[in-house]
Amino acid sequence: MNKIFISGNHTFAEAAIRAGCTCYFGYPITPQNELGEYMAANLRNNGGVFVQSESETAAINMVIGAAATGARVMTSSSSPGISLKQEGMSFLAGFELPAVIINVMRGGPGLGNIAPAQGDYFQATRGGGHGDYRTPVLAPGSVQEIADLTYLSFDLADRYKTPVMILGDGMMGQTKEPVLFPEKIKSLPEKEWALKSRGDGPSRFMASLVLDTAEMERHNWKLERKYQQIADNETRYELYKMDDAEVAIIAYGTTARIAKGAINRIRNEGIKAGLVRPITLWPFPKKILQELTRTINQFIVFEMSTGQMLEDVQLSIGGMADISFHGRPGGVIPTPAEFARFVYREYQEKKGLKS
């Protein structure tokens, strides 16, 4: 197999097709339009169904219908479009239907702009819609990882019967890099729970309205047990230069790439910094952060937001270490040099070396 030089948005689509996605429903919005365009051009040639819906709300409801038949199904949008899909995502969780949702984030709130940002972390990791539910959230750090995590997201969705979100941003979607795609999946096991049109078995139905409070409570606890199983089995993260680190930087996605450049700079200044990169934003890798507090007392959270993942770091570490934050919201992309200066100042101050 040869590597293909391809953008992040096209990689989402190509990986989904190769992972067995047969249905895509979406509505245009920058900076992820190339994803839908690629699906429109290629999905039907691979035996799938592409529909450009009349709205984001229509798209997510089409996802519910297709997922109920057992199809591997995907939708995508950018920040305000994802907001319009939240009710449908709650229904997917309540129905226990597998689906993949891509959010290529932009600056906000409101319509905002089309520049890359990370202001949707709260929405993604806290479910976003109504009711007691959680959504596994994957955050790629490269175009290759977009391909890998797209494959994984379909497998996780099927394994746990849950919607899965991949959280990228405008920069990640537009970046082009060499990607090695796995072979296309040729067949998938039948989903025994799926609704079928044939009449050769017992009738099946799905209902979301549960008026009996005791039954609704049982269903909520069933979902909670599933989410605990996901948290126990599916937490993922990357450690970069953490073997001898005395400063731990926590960043994901595009900011993690920027942080790696900054780490290389400040190590040349004699500061042993390393990176903890959450790959699953939910479940959040809190255990590794707690373990690191045994040897590290300085943590720095780096985001393209006003500080959202920061709260998960604070909840994970508690009062066991010092936590600093550097953020650039609204679509501003920080540079490695800028972040390196911030880390250097924080290190000097914590060590009492700052004049």
Write the layout of secondary structure elements.
Elements (H helix, E strand, L loop, with lengths): L3 E4 H11 L4 E4 L6 H10 L6 E4 L3 H13 L4 E5 L1 H6 L1 H10 L3 E7 L15 H5 L11 E2 L4 H18 L2 E7 H5 L1 E4 L33 H21 L3 E4 L6 E4 L2 H16 L4 E6 L1 E3 L3 H7 L5 E6 L5 H9 L4 E6 L8 H15 L5
Parallel strand pairs: 2-3, 2-4, 4-5, 5-7, 6-7, 10-11, 10-13, 13-14
Antiparallel strand pairs: 1-8, 6-12, 9-11
Concise overview:
This protein has 13 helices and 14 strands. The chain is an alpha/beta fold. It folds into two domains: 4-184 and 206-233, Rossmann fold; 237-350, Rossmann fold (3-Layer(aba) Sandwich), CATH 3.40.50.920.
Considering the chains and any ligands shown, give keywords for the structure:
single chain, 355 residues, alpha/beta, Rossmann fold, 2 domains, 7-stranded mixed sheet, 5-stranded mixed sheet, 13 helices, 14 strands, 41% helix
